[in-house]
């Protein structure tokens, strides 16, 4: 089964952007890890990144149309994009797993990061575990798909 792993704005800068917060590894290395973790779980993982809100919203519509589960780090869109929240709601309303991931723990940072407009429509949220959070999110997707089959 195919899963998309969507990364929002500035995550193309992983490795160079605030390495103390986001680590020293880049997006290519996150992609390779997600693909390897997916293989372990029987999932074909397609890792994407965009700085463009409209493009990320379009990926949610595509996920609904193609019945594709989503792992998403909405990055800064997390905190203010009602457009993305409405698009993400369509994914979870369709009964598809939608796991929200943050590399850092936004609750432990600036106050504007405490609000997620995505969390209310996500199946679940994983924060503060670095790149490993994507592995946990992929495991959660595999778990949800397994439960659906029962
Ligand atoms: C982030 C946390 C957000 O607050 C921030 O805007 C990001 C990355 C994270 O992965 O920890 O860009 O989503």
Task: Describe what is shown at a glance.
By secondary structure, the protein is an alpha/beta fold. Helix content is 42%, strand content 17%. 1,3,4-trihydroxy-5-OXO-cyclohexanecarboxylic acid (DQA) binds next to loops.
Overall description:
By secondary structure, the protein is an alpha/beta fold. It has a single domain (2-149), classed as 3-Layer(aba) Sandwich (Rossmann fold). It contains 5 helices and 5 strands, in the order E-H-H-E-H-E-H-E-E-H. The chain has helices at residues 19-22, 27-41, 53-66, 82-93, 132-149, and strands at residues 2-7, 44-49, 70-73, 98-102, 124-127. The protein has a 5-stranded parallel beta sheet, sandwiched between helices. Helix 2 runs parallel beside helix 5 and helix 3 (53-66) packs parallel to helix 4 (82-93). It is globular, with a radius of gyration of 14 Å. Bound molecules: 1,3,4-trihydroxy-5-OXO-cyclohexanecarboxylic acid.
Supply the number of structural domains.
Answer: 1
**Measured on Cα atoms, how large is the radius of gyration?**
14 Å
User: Please, what is the CATH homologous superfamily?
Assistant: Dehydroquinase, class II
- Low-confidence region ranges: none
Number of helices: 5
pLDDT averaged residue by residue? 97
> Roughly what fraction of the amino acids lie in strands?
15-25%
N-end to C-end Cα span = 17 Å
Basic shape: globular
CATH class descriptor: Alpha Beta
Strand order of the largest sheet: 2-1-3-4-5
Give, in order, the helices and strands.
EHHEHEHEEH
Compute the number of strand runs.
5
């Amino acid at each position: 089964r195919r899963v998309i792993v969507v990364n929002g704005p500035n995550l193309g800068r992983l490795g160079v952007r605030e390495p103390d917060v986001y680590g020293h590894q880049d997006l290519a290395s996150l992609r390779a890890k997600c693909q390897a973790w997916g293989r372990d779980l029987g999932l074909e993982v397609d890792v994407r990144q965009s700085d463009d809100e409209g493009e990320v919203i379009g990926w949610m519509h595509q996920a609904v149309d193609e019945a594709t589960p989503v792992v998403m780090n909405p990055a800064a869109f997390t905190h203010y994009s009602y457009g993305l929240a409405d698009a993400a709601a369509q994914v979870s309303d369709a009964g598809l797993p939608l796991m929200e991931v943050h590399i850092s723990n936004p609750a432990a940072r600036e106050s504007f990061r405490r609000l997620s407009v995505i969390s209310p429509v996500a199946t679940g949220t994983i924060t503060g575990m670095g790149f490993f959070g994507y592995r946990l999110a992929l495991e959660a997707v595999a778990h949800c798909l397994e439960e659906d089959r029962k």
